[in-house]
Amino acid sequence: MRLLWQRAGMLQKLLPQTKHYRRWLATTTASARGNGQEEKEKDNARYKWSTPESKAEMLLYGVCWTGGLGLAYFLLTQRGEPEAKLDDEALARLWHITARKDLPTYKAEQVEQHNAPDKRIWVTYGLGVYDVTEFAENHPGGDKIMMAAGSAIDPFWTIYQQHNTLEVLELLESFRIGNLEGVTVASTDEELGSPWAQEPKRHALLKPASKRPFNAEPPIGLLAEKFYTPNELFYVRNHLPVPVLTPEEYELEVDASGGEQKEPLTLTLAQIKALPKHTVTAAIMCGGNRRSEMTSIKAVKGLSWGAGAVGNAKWSGARLCDLLREQGVQPNESMHVIFEGADLDPTSHPYGASIPLSKALDPRGDVILAYEMNDSPLTRDHGYPIRVIVPGTVGARNVKWLTRIVVADHESDSHWQQNDYKGFSPSTDWDTVDFGKAEAIQAMPVTSAICTPLPGERVKVNPQDGHITVRGYAWSGGGRKILRVDLTGDAGKTWHVAELEQEDAPDGRHYGWSLWTARLPITKDQQELQQVEIWAKAVDSAYNVQPEKFEHIWNLRGVLANAYHKVKVKLA
């Protein structure tokens, strides 16, 4: 009998650690999800563990004290406590891949709309859809969840294996609000012959701004973690379907005649790789980076990029200036170099862009025909097998899948050179715009962005010195070096200079970005209010500085969005 009493005590200790916790989570989060679940919550409350007159407790005690101890003894002697817990965890790991009939079904497009606290924060995990708004705002790991807001947390779950515990899985399931609609019918776009049929596989962490053509950026919170952006997390900007090119069949045509009658040169991939190899560190930034911030002032036309449409990499390949000089090309300030890719529009016209010949011929311009990115072959999304890298220049001029180079007395006549990627006055609208009178963007203006903390994140103030840590990136086009990044938490009354991490390159050839870290002091008033708005601005070697407000630089295409980066966070 003494042994039975000991086993009964063990049973009492075991049950509150599992059933009690699970039932508590399921009942206390119902009100947070809303949807008229008050009656359901009252009903569930009757089944909470340790609730007076609880049916669950009465049932357990009835079993235990009227002969159920024998069964408890059998169970506990045949299978130990750790094994029971493992069985519970194994069952919990199936929840996210099991459709729940008691919940509604949502499409991925509906989930994507819930990507900020004011819209509610929804995420998906397997087949489950979860509303994690309150959790993300109040949990130390909320910044990682914000990276996946409106999309899948599966990639993070794979990285952070410590989440695969019974307690965490129970907590996640308590936030579940629905099932994710699966694809049951093959899309006609995926049928043989479709231009999208052979799109490459992308990393799950990339957040699409559009799916066809595919355009996506990594979570901003990851950008400042590595000086060289991992290839698989480098933002993707495609204007057309990704072409399929094989190294055996690849050819690059080089027409250096400048309009004269001269046979163009044709190079194979092997011949390009046989040329002297040159390496340059360069950041590539989309002209529409941070467009979403400009859109908040007034609507613009273009993809709604955040601050992640930028990446920094080490590029290797043959120098364009060497190739052109071998073809007898001489300096001429009025000439241009046109690049064409293998990606074609429905009329079979290729993506095209051009740069001044002076940039192409300048050895300090470091323009290369790149076949490596961070010491690895280019991936298809980044231009395999050859991409022209034009350091310090807007991403649109860094043509991928390069198949043709032409030296000409005019710019490229492509849509993307003539009728896109140009800046205008804030007063210019679509009724008055004249793209023919505006210069095409080449070198980008100075900019910076706060990567962490994320907007709306709850940040813990260091109790010893009253500071919070802020990290981000800064970059300026034209090879201009970043001299300084200033931050303020009091709307510009006081400024604090960040520490820079940057490559040791001479000014004028400083094509890589700079990462920065700052310790921002938090005042007692801000701690009482439990919030602060952080501003960041960068200064380059020409002492160009970011403008304060987007109202002053707004333009109808939403390009060149380089105003102060401002992030509001909560304080803990």
Automatic annotation (TrEMBL):
Record's subcellular location: Mitochondrion intermembrane space
Gene Ontology MF terms in the entry: heme binding; molybdenum ion binding; molybdopterin cofactor binding; sulfite oxidase activity
Coiled-coil region(s): none
Any one Gene Ontology cellular component term annotated for this protein: mitochondrial intermembrane space
One GO BP: sulfur compound metabolic process
UniProt cross-references to InterPro entries, sorted A to Z: Cyt_B5-like_heme/steroid-bd, Cyt_B5-like_heme/steroid_sf, Ig_E-set, MoCF_OxRdtse_dimer, Mopterin_OxRdtase_euk, OxRdtase_Mopterin-bd_dom, OxRdtase_Mopterin-bd_sf, OxRdtase_Mopterin_BS
Pathway recorded for this protein: Sulfur metabolism; Energy metabolism; sulfur metabolism
Cofactor(s) in the UniProt record: Mo-molybdopterin; heme b
Residues covered by the Cytochrome b5 heme-binding domain: 103-181
Quaternary data: Homodimer.
Name listed for the protein in its UniProt record: sulfite oxidase
